[in-house]
Amino acid sequence: MKGNHRALVSVLGTIGLLVGLAGIRPSAAADVLAIGAPLAATGADAREGALSKQGYDLWADTVNAKGGIPVGGKHYQVRILYYDDQSKPQISAELTDKLISQDHVDFLLGPYGSPTTFADAPIAERYRIPMVEANGAARKIFAQGYRYTFGVLSPADEYAVSMLKAALTFHPRPQTVAFLAADDLFSLEVASAARDWAQHHGLEVVYFQKYPVGTTDLSAPLTSIKALQPDLLIGSGHLQESLLIMKEAQTLNLNTHFFGFTVGPTTPDFAKALGPAADGVFASSQWTPDVKYQGPVFGSAQDYAKAFEQKYGFVPDYHAAESTAAGVALQLAIEKAGSVDPQKVRDALATLDVMTFYGPIHFTPQGINTAKPMVTVQIQHGHVVTVWPPDVASARAIYPEPVWSARR
Amino acid sequence: MGIGTQIVLQDAVNGLLLGGVYAAVAVGFSLVWGVLNVVNLAHGALVMLGAYATYWFAASGHLDPLATLPVVGYALFLFGYGLQRFVINRVIGTSFLVTFLLTFGLQLLITNLALAWWTADVRSVTTAYSGWALTVGAVVVPAVRLVGAGAAVLMAAALAAIMRWTQFGMAVQATALDREAARLMGIPVARIYARTFALAAATAGMAGGLISLSFPIFPAMGTGYTLVAFVVCVLGGLGSVAGAVVGGFLLGLAQTFASAWVGPNYNNIVAFSALILMLVVRPAGLFGRAGHFRG
Questions:
Q1: A164 and A249 inside one domain
Q2: Which terminus, N or C, of chain A has the lesser number of Cβ atoms within 10 Å?
Q3: Nearest CB partner across the interface for A209, out of B119, B144, B264
Q4: Are the CB atoms for B45 and B219 separated by under 8 Å?
Q5: How many domains does chain B have?
């Protein structure tokens, strides 16, 4: 009897201890929101991944410095847990699973790039954890009926089309266009959408080819393009390929009225790497520091750019801004939900309609933000200036671009 | 001259110039494979180091990339010597797989250190003569690429001369033919290995310097060049300078014409089809003989 009693006491004691420990845990962690982000630190997207991380970090640090996210009288600090997905969709999906099932993150911020976002979205869906993503613009991501993936950026089909829209306002009106696209989900979708748009708007598509991602040489397609003498050349790929096209176009003396790239010219490396050869190059951008938007957390786009430059020492491009905007959207949804319950925050995201430094954020039922327009920019005297649409533009476009012999 | 002919000629020029770069990358790889029997998967990483060294000289010292080429080569020579003497030499003569794993690891290590130290920024060496070109009819021959290809061929010729006419070269050839016999003849095999590897690293570094003149550079750029070196060696044949040069030009031409006629997306398909075909039809390559190295 006495032995039984003692056993009972020790069992109860153990249970009590466990309950106690269990009780301590949530209360200690209660004021910190764990947010997971699988993000490229190595591989093909390492550069853009690093820019995205800076955007995420700036949001987290700003929120934490302001005391955290207010939810029902409590203030939650945010802590972002990063894993390197090596720019590989399969690894990104595995890490997303690990973040949710092992690290028990409350929310997710997206990876860099459409292929990885496409791979991660079904994982978020399966665990019903909202993922606010900033760097996956392919329409395909938002055509799967997912309810937990929200993209703050303009969809892929707008990327190159916005440059064509701008080009058609220039004089003399361009007649022909050539496309070179990297062979990946995002770049191809961008180029195909632009090709369709061009054909419906009286632009003749004289060349359309895809090349393998990370190719070391594009002199052959550029030679073919040179013979066709198109008015516009649109490259839909990645930073190193945009640089490669410009370097090889220069050495082959391939001149067009308009070199336009979906990715590249807005990152600081581009003008730095090419020097005067970069002058006149067009690009589309999700965001530029000179747009006229204003909102909570960061103030105006210019305020944001200032805060970013203070922290990192250079002016942010859209990769950083959209990543920060994803954090802001998540934060505003949490505040609106008044809860950190993933389901309630998801519902708040679905109905979110706010203005931020990045532009308006309002998700379609498919989860993409079409409220914000793309802008077309041009490098003028080494600086990226916004030239289209006219109402947010800070400079007039120089068209046609100078020929190579005039760029030195 | 019709526009079609002009394009074909321009493509041929592009292919040959690209091939020159490929040859420069491949000679060192071929040398190490032929003499040490090591497939050096870190070869591309050495190319990357050479490109960055050239970049730093140009960016912070305003030194001409072509003038610094010998310095870059010497720096990589020393690095390669150390790498071979203290790391790779420890697994020489063990199984092929071990050397494979070791060099793969080295490639990852070097690439990721570069990523950590120099960030993932894409950089480019731009010189005053970057845009210069010779124009022959309607065919443009970009100056930097012509110089690059020319320097590559010179480098290969110098290597061939070293292999053929110096005592060191003969010792290398003897070691490649029969390691044990060479040791018995008093050839210091470990030192020969280290010097051979160092020489290969020097050529890789200079190839990187030449590449930086025409192409953007970034830490992960090496992987593609290791693949290129591999294909070139299989095409041209292992263990011969001539094989690497001819293989390089062949691959450059094949990729360029595949890009132009079928589509840029086919250049790797064509490259690796050629590799498989060569392995099936003539496994030793055009100029190769196993276990041998010729100048």
A1: yes
A2: N
A3: B264
A4: no
A5: 1
Compute the half-sphere exposure of residue A95: CA atoms within 13 Å on the CB side of its CA: 24
In-domain check, residue B208:
yes
A221, A253, A277 member nearest B126 (Cβ):
A277
Q: Pairing between strand A32-39 and A107-109?
A: parallel
Cα–Cα distance for residue pair A222/B11, rounded to 1 Å: 10
Contact A236, A161 (CB under 8 A): no
| A345's tokens | 């925050």
> What secondary structure letter does DSSP report for B279?
H
What are the φ/ψ torsions at residue A376 (nearest 5 degrees)? Answer: -105, 130
Same domain, A167 and A150: no
Pairwise CB contact (< 8 Å): A240 & B260: no
pLDDT in tens, A374-395: 999 999 998 889 998 887 888 9
Q: Any bridge partners for residue A181, and if so which?
A: A210, A236
Shortest Cα distance from B234 to chain A (angstroms)?
A: 20
Task: Provide the β-strand partners of residue A180.
Answer: A209, A235
Looking at the whole model, is its pTM more than 0.80?
no
Interface confidence (ipTM) of the complex: 0.82
- A275 and A305 both lie in a single domain: no
Q: How many domains does chain A have?
A: 2
Contacts of B228 in chain A (CB under 8 A): 216
**Helix, coil or strand: residue A307:** helix
